[in-house]
Structure formats: structure tokens, C-alpha cells
């Protein structure tokens, strides 16, 4: 753990820096009484002494009172410390994941220290064997010297003798004798106890002697060792972790070569202030920093590399991000160890009771602090991009697995790499293709065409339900998605390695149609998930990238790829997936589309775990009656239907005749995608092929008044159906 951590002392003159920017005494005077000045004593062995004394880095105990040390007088301290109560438990202790992460870190460190010393045991034993006899003599000598009570007294007597002050000399000697008498008795008693102990050891069981040796020998060795020699080796020369202190943050910020920061700090050392104490947050420390006036947090985020350099820490241990409040507020989180070395908790959806509602958020990833990051699927479409080995297929599969746990969701998709990463999901998919051969590409293209048609059908249905007041925002609602036969259930369409299709002969058309699907489908319950390796304009038409509303950019090679996935200026604004290394940091990426972009690592779910989820998804779908039939991987298109049969089905009760407009409304209810929006005249036209059904005036009494409108008779309808059936039978 230690070997790859750089020495934080490198090249920095602490004394000068402290003197320049920080008046420790002044800061302490301003501190409120009762405030605990001691910094994390439990971490002292692994942090630097100079840091441990920093006035603005505090133990994250709930008892702290008082305002921030550095709050500039002219800056309103806002809601941070105006009557806000501190949580009883620190943030990191409130979430199971962060608590586990912190405990895991300690356990790992303890294990490391134990292992470190264990392998050096022979060396320690040899040193102990050399120093212990010396310790015996030295210890005996010290005891005798103590008993004579000469320490200090001798020098005073000598001084009295030199001055010829016999009276003083005699008084001092009498005092020494008085002290010495009881000390000799103590020594005698100790010697007698020791002798008795030795006799007891001689006659007692052997293990007593071993225990006594194990205790006495290291103690003697400690007494006998030279002052500049340790018995055990230092666990770390370079620190595995350096606690975040105000000084460290100031130094780092002033090393960014941001002129605005440097000139502000030159004028006023308190230009960088801390509205909240630096405190422990999950497996690391968090500093909320108010940057000098006019400096944006994004400027600092964009210089994350320089920041890490100034802190002498690996890049993935330093996580600056804009903090809520104002644009000049920075949240700087520094982990105990690089994120790539932290163990991620298991995916919550692996729990046997986990269910997903695509309208609601579910766990997708963890941030550097190991907090769970949630996303949702409905009204979204996703673009996952990254170079080979960045983990995009696994991340995309997480989403499809989550969708599988919502029994309403219909899942169809193509992996155009041909390795079968998604094959485990086959039992719950209504359509699945795997490969990059022409046939699979053709099927994938036909699927995109079908998606477009499906969007058209769905838009008719939405229009109909909107008229009925069931889709107030002209969008699929949870009720409509659950309504059997509404045809508006969630439809998840995924494509992995889409560049294979886009660079094939189908590419141009596929790109255009998919763009339309993305635009139309969002409100209609069609969720598009795209994974691609090469995010250039040929492999991924800009029309698609522009219209996707959720993006996950995993490790990419350069700024162009980064901005293709995350959008123009993402790189400039500090959202850089180029910092992640493929394979080693697989699963890490920048997630955008959910507030400010954040660095997260998708949950790692291997194929065995995925199979367990699929088994649960199958059970859910069997119960709900939505399990696709593996033998019929066909796309459900609206079946052929006859207007005659449909009219017979919706005919209002015992009515002998009905108005066209009444019938149109009933037909639209039955099949909104077909009859939605029909007017009376449309029904007349549709009935033209059936001459037995005569559209004529039908009179009715409405509120006592006779009203006549165009309509048909039930007997005509039944006659036409009988005639049609007769003809069909004859054929
Ligand atoms: N979230 C994760 N955490 C840890 N390891 C991961 C994670 N996601 C993926 N990996 C590892 O990275 C490897 C590559 O992942 P994946 O196949 O998803 O990459 P890819 O970007 O799709 O690469 P390619 O384009 O070559 O298929 C996986 O085999 C897996 O072991």
C-alpha cells in the first residue's frame, strides 16, 4: 500500500509556507471554547505531525462547537453555521456503504502493518537478542543510580562546595540521604519480589517462563537499544495518506497557476476561506472551500492534475468538484487511498428482494467516496462510450439487468461485437441479436425501422389517452405503462458496439432513423441504450449524440472522444474521462445528464451474478405474464383487424342504430393506435367496401330534442359480417 504513494514532503518548505499564509495563534484565539483542538489522534501514526497540528483540520466528532476558524469577516457565512444542527452521526457513519468502506480501510491498514512486521520478525529477534543483555546491565545501573538519589543533587553539592558553602552542602547531603534510604528499601523490595518471581518461574510450568521471557526480553531490549536505533522498522517512510488540512489546500490552490487566486492571496492570505470545517467524509476528508472572489470552482476542477501534483497524491485520490451555494465554492474530497484501490460494495440489485421500477431511480454506480449513485431509465436514452476495456459493455449490461427486474419492460437489443456478453439475458429478451455478420446487421437495421413504426403507433395511443385525460403531459405515465393492452409499456432497446452498424452499408439510414426514434421515443416509453467504442461522427452520427440526454463516458483516449460523448466543452470544464486508464480502472467514467457531471464507477456484475438476476427476472415475468416466448422472437406489430369485427365488439348495448361519432370514440378506446382521432366521415369511408352497411341519418332524442346524425344500423353490421364470413368460407 505504501510503495506507490509518493512522499508528501517532497520539495516543500513547510516552515516558510506556514509563516507566509497562516497565523496559527491568531486562528486558535478565534476558536470557540470547547472546541477540540486535537486532530485525529488515531491517525497520527500515518499522518504528518505538521498536518496534525493544523488549526483548521478537526476531528469529525459530533461534539464540535463553534464557527469555522477561517471565516472571512466580510463574507456572510450563510446557512452553513446559522443554527444548523450537526448530525448526531457523522456522514460517513450514516451510510452502510461508507461505514463499511471506512472500516475496510482500517482493517486493510491493520493487516498491512501486521504483515509488514511479521516478515521482519527474525530481524527483530536478532536485534532483541543483542540489545536485551545490554538492557539488563543498563537497567540495573539505572536502578542503582536512582537509589543513590545522586541525580541532580550531586551537581548542587558540587556548586555549594565550589562556593565554600558548607551549610548548603550539608543540607543537600542530608536530603540525599533521606531520599536514598527509602529508595534503597524500594529497590530491596523490588529485588526480593524479582527473586521470588524467578523462583516461582523455576518451579512453575514451562509456559510461565516463556511468557516471562516474551515480556521481559523486549522490555530489556528497549532499554538496551541505542537511542537512535529502533527495534522495529518504520512501517512507512512515505505516508499512505495525508490528512487534508487548510494549509495543504491553500498551498495546492496557490500552485495551480491561476492568476486570480495568486493575486488575491497575495493581497489577503484569507482570500481562500473554509465555510465549513474540513472533516472526515466517508473514506477520506472533505474541504469546502470558498475561492477568492471571481474564481470559479470549475477553473480548479479543470486543473485537477496540478492540484494532485501540489498535494503529492495520485490523481484518483483527489476529487475536486463544484459545491452547491455559489460558483466559487469548491468541494475538495481527498481519499485515504486512490479510488482505483478501493473495494466497491456489491450491487444492491443483487439482493434477492430487489425490484426495479423504471420510473424510479436505482443504484447504478458508486462515486469516489463509495456513495451509491442512482439513475433512472424512463424518459431517458443513454450513450455509453469508451475505448476497449473501459467497461462500457458491463455498464450497459447493468442497465439492461435493471430493466429486466421491472416485469413490464420489454427488452430488445443487439450486441454487434459478437462475444455474447448479453446472452445471459436472453430468457427475458423479446429480441436478441449477437454478431457483426451481414444478417445480424440487417436484422438490427430492421429493428431500428420497426422502432420508428412503434414510436408512431405509440404516439397515436398517447394522443388518445391524452384526450381521455389519462396522459396529462402527453407522456407515458406509470399507470399507462402498467395498463395491460395500452401498448405503452416501457420498451428498452439497446445496441452495444453500435459503430459496427453505423459504419456498415445500413449506417446512413440507420443513423437517421435512430435519431428520429431517440427524439420521438423519450415520452413514449421507448428507452434507447447505446454503447460505442469509437465516438467519431461516422461511427455515431452527431444527430444521435446531440439528442441523447444521459451519457456515461468511460476511459477515452483524447479530448475529442471525451467531448463527443459528454458534449462540447466538457473537457474544458474539467469533466475528463481521459484520466481513467482502460482495464485497470474499468468501469470508471463521467456520468452526465443527472445534474452536474460526476465521476463514478459502475457496479461490477459478473456473468454468474447476472444469471442470478435474470433468474429472478424470469420469475417476476412468469408471474406477470410478460415472459417472452423464446420460439417467437418476432416483433409485435398491430395485428390485422377488421373494422366490422371491431364495430361489433364495441357496439353499445342493445342499441338498434348508433351514430358514427359514438362508434368512433368506442373504436379509439379499443385500438387507439388505429382509430385514435377518427372522425365520423373516416368511419363512413372505412365502411365503403361493405355495401350492406348503409351510413344514413339516425335520429335520437338528446335532452328532449330530436337530433339527427350520420350513423349505421346494428342489423346492417351483422348482415355484413355474415356475408363476409360466407365469402371467406367459400374461398
Ligand atoms: N465496474 C467495473 N468494475 C471493475 N471491473 C470492471 C467493471 N466493468 C468492467 N470491468 C472489467 O473490465 C473488463 C472489460 O469490460 P467491458 O467488456 O465492459 O469493456 P468494453 O469497454 O466493453 O471493452 P470492449 O470494447 O473491448 O468490449 C471486464 O472484463 C471486467 O472484468
TrEMBL record:
Query: Which residues span the membrane?
Result: 181-201
The terms under GO molecular function for this entry are:
ATP binding; DNA binding
Residues annotated to bind ATP: 386-393
Q: Locate the FtsK domain: which residues?
A: 370-563
Name the UniProt key words of this record, in alphabetical order: ATP-binding, Cell cycle, Cell division, Membrane, Nucleotide-binding, Transmembrane, Transmembrane helix
One GO biological process term: cell division
Q: What protein does this entry describe?
A: Cell division protein FtsK
Q: Organism, per UniProt?
A: Planosporangium mesophilum
InterPro entries assigned: FtsK/SpoIIIE/SftA, FtsK_dom, P-loop_NTPase
Q: Where is the composition biased (Acidic residues)?
A: 42-59
Annotated spans, Disordered? 25-72
What PANTHER family does this protein map onto? FTSK DOMAIN-CONTAINING PROTEIN YDCQ (PTHR22683:SF47), SPORULATION PROTEIN RELATED (PTHR22683)
Amino acid at each position: 500500500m505504501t510503495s506507490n504513494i509518493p512522499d508528501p514532503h517532497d520539495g516543500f518548505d513547510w516552515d516558510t509556507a506556514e509563516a507566509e499564509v497562516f497565523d496559527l495563534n491568531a486562528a486558535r484565539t478565534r476558536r470557540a471554547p470547547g472546541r477540540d483542538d486535537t486532530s485525529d489522534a488515531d491517525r497520527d501514526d500515518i499522518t504528518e505531525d505538521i498536518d496534525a497540528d493544523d488549526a483548521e483540520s478537526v476531528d469529525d466528532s459530533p461534539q464540535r462547537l463553534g464557527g469555522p476558524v477561517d471565516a472571512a469577516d466580510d463574507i456572510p457565512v450563510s446557512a452553513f453555521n446559522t443554527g444548523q444542527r450537526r448530525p448526531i452521526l457523522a456522514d460517513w457513519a450514516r451510510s452502510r456503504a461508507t461505514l463499511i468502506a471506512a472500516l475496510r480501510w482500517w482493517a486493510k491498514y491493520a493487516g498491512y502493518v501486521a504483515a509488514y512486521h511479521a516478515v521482519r520478525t527474525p530481524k527483530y529477534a536478532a536485534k532483541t537478542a543483542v540489545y536485551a543483555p545490554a538492557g539488563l546491565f543498563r537497567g540495573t545501573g539505572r536502578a542503582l543510580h536512582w537509589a543513590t538519589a545522586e541525580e541532580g543533587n550531586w551537581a548542587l553539592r558540587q556548586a555549594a562546595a565550589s562556593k565554600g558553602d558548607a551549610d548548603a552542602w550539608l543540607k543537600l547531603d542530608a536530603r540525599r540521604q533521606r531520599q536514598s534510604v527509602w529508595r534503597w528499601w524500594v529497590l530491596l523490595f523490588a529485588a526480593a519480589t524479582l527473586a521470588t518471581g524467578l523462583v516461582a518461574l523455576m518451579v512453575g510450568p514451562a509456559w510461565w517462563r516463556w511468557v516471562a521471557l516474551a515480556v521481559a526480553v523486549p522490555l530489556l531490549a528497549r532499554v538496551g537499544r541505542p537511542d537512535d536505533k529502533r527495534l522495529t522498522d518504520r512501517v512507512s517512510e512515505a505516508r499512505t495518506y495525508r490528512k487534508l488540512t487548510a494549509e495543504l489546500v491553500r498551498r495546492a490552490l496557490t500552485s495551480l497557476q491561476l492568476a486570480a487566486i495568486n493575486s488575491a492571496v497575495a493581497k489577503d492570505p484569507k482570500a481562500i476561506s473554509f465555510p465549513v470545517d474540513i472533516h472526515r467524509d466517508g473514506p477520506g476528508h472533505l474541504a469546502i472551500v470558498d475561492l477568492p472572489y471571481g474564481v470559479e470552482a470549475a477553473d480548479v476542477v479543470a486543473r485537477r492534475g496540478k492540484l494532485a501534483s501540489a498535494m503529492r497524491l495520485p490523481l484518483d485520490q483527489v476529487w475536486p468538484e463544484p459545491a452547491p451555494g455559489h460558483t466559487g465554492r469548491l468541494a475538495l474530497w481527498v481519499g485515504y487511498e486512490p479510488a482505483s484501490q478501493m473495494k466497491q460494495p456489491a450491487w444492491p440489485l443483487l439482493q434477492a428482494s430487489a425490484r426495479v421500477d423504471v420510473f424510479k431511480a436505482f443504484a447504478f454506480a458508486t462515486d469516489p467516496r463509495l456513495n451509491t449513485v442512482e439513475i433512472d431509465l424512463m424518459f431517458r436514452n443513454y450513450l455509453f462510450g469508451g475505448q476497449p476495456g473501459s467497461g462500457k459493455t458491463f455498464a450497459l449490461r447493468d442497465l439492461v439487468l435493471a430493466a429486466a427486474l421491472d416485469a413490464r419492460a420489454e427488452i430488445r437489443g443487439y450486441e454487434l461485437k459478437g462475444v455474447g456478453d448479453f446472452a445471459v439475458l436472453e430468457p427475458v429478451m423479446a429480441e436478441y441479436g449477437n454478431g457483426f455478420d451481414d444478417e445480424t446487421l440487417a436484422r438490427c437495421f430492421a429493428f431500428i425501422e420497426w422502432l420508428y413504426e412503434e414510436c408512431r403507433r405509440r404516439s397515436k395511443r398517447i394522443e388518445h389517452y391524452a384526450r381521455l385525460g389519462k396522459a396529462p403531459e402527453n407522456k407515458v405515465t406509470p399507470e399507462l405503462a402498467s395498463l395491460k393492452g395500452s401498448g405503452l409499456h416501457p420498451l428498452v432497446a439497446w445496441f452495444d458496439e453500435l459503430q459496427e452498424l453505423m459504419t456498415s452499408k445500413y449506417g446512413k439510414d440507420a443513423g437517421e432513423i435512430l435519431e428520429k426514434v431517440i427524439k420521438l421515443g423519450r415520452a413514449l416509453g421507448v428507452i434507447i441504450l447505446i454503447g460505442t467504442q469509437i465516438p467519431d461522427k461516422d461511427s455515431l452520427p452527431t444527430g444521435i449524440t446531440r439528442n441523447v440526454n444521459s451519457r456515461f463516458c468511460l476511459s477515452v483516449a483524447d479530448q475529442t472522444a471525451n467531448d463527443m460523448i459528454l458534449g462540447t466543452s466538457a473537457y474544458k470544464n474539467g469533466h475528463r474521462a481521459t484520466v481513467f486508464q482502460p482495464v485497470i480502472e474499468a468501469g470508471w467514467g463521467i456520468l452526465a445528464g443527472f445534474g452536474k457531471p460526476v465521476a463514478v464507477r459502475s457496479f461490477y456484475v459478473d456473468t454468474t451474478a447476472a444469471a442470478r438476476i435474470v433468474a429472478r427476472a424470469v420469475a417476476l415475468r412468469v408471474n406477470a405474464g410478460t415472459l417472452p416466448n423464446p420460439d417467437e422472437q418476432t416483433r409485435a406489430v398491430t395485428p390485422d383487424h377488421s373494422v366490422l369485427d371491431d364495430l361489433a365488439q364495441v357496439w353499445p348495448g342493445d342499441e338498434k342504430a348508433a351514430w358514427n361519432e359514438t362508434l368512433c370514440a368506442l373504436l379509439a378506446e379499443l385500438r387507439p393506435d388505429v382509430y385514435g382521432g377518427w372522425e365520423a366521415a373516416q368511419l363512413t369511408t372505412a365502411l365503403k367496401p361493405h355495401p350492406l352497411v348503409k351510413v344514413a341519418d339516425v335520429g335520437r332524442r338528446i335532452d328532449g330534442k330530436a337530433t339527427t346524425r350520420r350513423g349505421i344500423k346494428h342489423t346492417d353490421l351483422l348482415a355484413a359480417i355474415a356475408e363476409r364470413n360466407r365469402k371467406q368460407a367459400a374461398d
